[in-house]
Amino acid sequence: MTGNNQHVWQPSHVQGVSLLELAEKFGTPLYVYDGAQIVERYNYFVASFDRRIPLAVKFACKALPSLAIIELLHRCGAGVDAVSIEEVELALRTGVPAKDICFTPNCVNFEEIQKGVEYGVIVNIDDLSLLERFGHTYGSRVGCGIRINPHIVAGGNPHIQVGHIDSKFGISILQLRHLLRIVQNYGIRVVGLHMHTGSDIYDPEVFVQAASVLFDVAEHFPDLEFIDLGSGFKVPYKPDDVATDIRAFGQTMSQAFLEFCERYGRMLALWFEPGKYLVSQAGYLLVEVTVVKQTVSSLFVGVNSGFNHLIRPMFYDAYHHIVNLSNPQGKPRIYSVVGYICETDTFAWDRPIAEVREGDILCIMNAGAYGIAMSSNYNARRRPAEVLVLDGIPYLIRRRETLEDLIAPQRTLSEVMQQHSPLRTHEHFG
Ligand SMILES: *Cc1c(COP(=O)(O)O)cnc(C)c1O
């Protein structure tokens, strides 16, 4: 497998375990993850780079922040890239040591950065005024990474490009002089340079181009320990779709990096922060067909899930391949697959799918990344369960939410009014 093109577009089993049986056993909607594929992709990624380079892979856990997945990748050797202090805490709780966690927040207050420093994780700072406060507070005592925006526009989807000139991410390469002044002023120890220019970068050349901007900047920083090239690798969403050729990328990038290290004068560590690449294709969302509805214009398939469980089609116009597990040999017809949320809620428009009947189980593919991660309780719907298949064994790693889970943080009006009875209010103001 491992390569990008041998992806199976007609799934029925994961490591010999039938998806239909999983749907039956655990109920639907259900997220299923193929642990073997995640491990394989991690190993394939690492093996694509020159062995002489000290490589570190930090799993961008925002893509799939489930504890068991973070732990699985950590067992393989991966660290974690966190974009919020909560993700840092999730990773620490999972047992990932602070030294393997990098924290790359955007638009957070200084207290959150301080908390990261207290936990002992490496913080990538992406704003000049925060950097100034960092220098003012820590001087040269605590090292940090700097997130640079090289303004190389990458990725096909404008929703997920973050490297353009009016992006909110990173410190602009055009502000380098200002950046250097702050660093010198406070004696800040810059131990890493970071970039992350967006998702769905298909062309390795674009990546190398952006990296070379970082390599040029690196000459101004003598204390570097790592170069963090972020992520954004594209995965295929449909048969014959293009994907980043990780093997070729690893070779080209390794060569460019080794040459850079030679110029720089010593070997640095090379970090990446893949999210989607590691988990997207390993995830399946299984849903049940509730209605098949012929209208004057379309043939709709309604399912027992919606954008509350997988928002990418509605949010990014993302394509997710859909397969009918219950009737794989059925004659394909053209359907629009829609969810149960009470507003426009479409998983797929005008899509050929093997004939669908009410009660069939559909498999929505590429659901590992930004699936459950971006789920919500909209319409008071509960989040699905998650199953991780490892060594042929399906493990329930997140139980389905209950009504109690929705209610637990809340108080009814009667309850709060009772607590603030006239007597108590009187005492309070007295
Ligand atoms: C989102 C994000 C990633 C992961 O991006 P993918 O496209 O899922 O691989 C990595 N680094 C940072 C800083 C991010 O914000």
What is this structure's SSE topology?
Blueprint (H helix, E strand, L loop, with lengths): L12 E2 L2 E2 H8 L3 E5 H13 L7 E6 L6 H10 L2 E4 L2 H10 L6 E3 L6 H10 L2 E4 L2 H11 L5 E6 L21 E2 L3 H11 L3 E5 L9 H15 L7 E3 L17 H19 L4 E4 L3 H4 L3 E12 L4 E5 L8 H5 L5 E3 L7 E7 L7 E9 L6 E4 L20 E6 L2 E6 L4 H5 L5 H7 L2 H8 L1
Parallel strand pairs: 3-19, 4-5, 4-12, 5-6, 6-7, 7-8, 8-9, 8-10, 10-11, 11-12, 14-16
Antiparallel strand pairs: 1-2, 3-13, 13-14, 13-18, 15-18, 16-17, 19-20
The protein binds pyridoxal-5'-phosphate.
The site of pyridoxal-5'-phosphate has 18 residues, from α10.
Question: What labels would you give this structure?
Answer:
430 residues, alpha/beta, TIM Barrel, nine-stranded mixed beta sheet, 14 helices, 23% strand, disordered N terminus, binds pyridoxal-5'-phosphate
**Mean pLDDT over all positions:** 93
Query: What is the CATH H-level superfamily of the domain at 35-276?
Result: Alanine racemase
Number of helices: 14
Biggest sheet, open or closed, and with what strands and sense? Answer: 9 strands, mixed
At CATH level 3, the topology of the domain at 35-276 is: TIM Barrel
Helix content, binned percent = 25-40%
Question: How would you sum up this structure, described in words?
Answer:
- 32% of the residues lie in helices and 23% in strands.
- The protein has 430 residues and is α/β, with parallel strands linked by helices.
- It has a domain at 35-276: TIM Barrel (Alpha-Beta Barrel), CATH 3.20.20.10.
- The strands form three sheets. Strands 3, 13, 14, 15, 16, 17, 18, 19 and 20 form a nine-stranded mixed β-sheet that branches. Strands 4-5-6-7-8-10-11-12 form an eight-stranded parallel β-barrel, surrounded by five helices. The protein has a two-stranded antiparallel sheet with strand order 1-2.
- The model is unreliable at 1-6 (pLDDT under 50).
- Residues 60, 62-63, 81, 83, 104, 196, 199, 230-233, 273-277, 369 line the site of pyridoxal-5'-phosphate.
- Pyridoxal-5'-phosphate binds at residues 60, 62-63, 81, 83, 104, 196, 199, 230-233, 273-277, 369.
